[in-house]
Structure prediction request, 153 residues.
Amino acid sequence: MAAVRNNSDALEDVYWEIRGDREIVLTACRSERGRYSLIFISDDAELMGDREIVLAAVLKNGTALQYASEDLKGDREIVLTAVESNGHALSSAAENLKSDIEIVMKALNTTKNLGHAPRDILEYVSEEVKADPKIQAFLESLGPEEEGYSALF
Prediction:
C-alpha cells in the first residue's frame, strides 16, 4: 500500500493477487506519481468495471479509458473526465459518445491546450460530427501552429 501510494507504477511489481485488491488499486489510481495503474490490472474485469477506480484513473491519465469496461466507456462523466485529461482518450469512448459534440469539443480543446494538433482528434469521429457548425468554427479559429504545421511552412 505504501509503495503504490508513493508511485502507482509500483503496482507493476507486486504479485497478481495484490493487484486484485480494490483498495490497493484505488490508492494507486489516486497516487500523485505514476501514470499506468490500470494497465497492470487490465485482466481483472471486476476492477475494470469499478466506476470509482476508473474515474480516479482517467482523472490522472485519460488514456486509461482504454482499459475500462465497455459499460464505463459509455459513461458520459467518465469519458468527459478522460478527454479533459487527454483528448485522445476519445478513441476509446463508446461510439455514441464520439458523436456528443460537447465531448468532442472538450477533446479538441484539451488537445489544443496541451500544444498538440487538435485536428488529430477528428480521426475518431464521423463525417457528420466533423461537419457540425461548432466543430467547423473551432477548426477555422486555429492558426497554422495549432494545426500541427511547422512554422517553416
Q: What stands out?
A: Residues 148-153 have pLDDT under 50 and may be disordered.
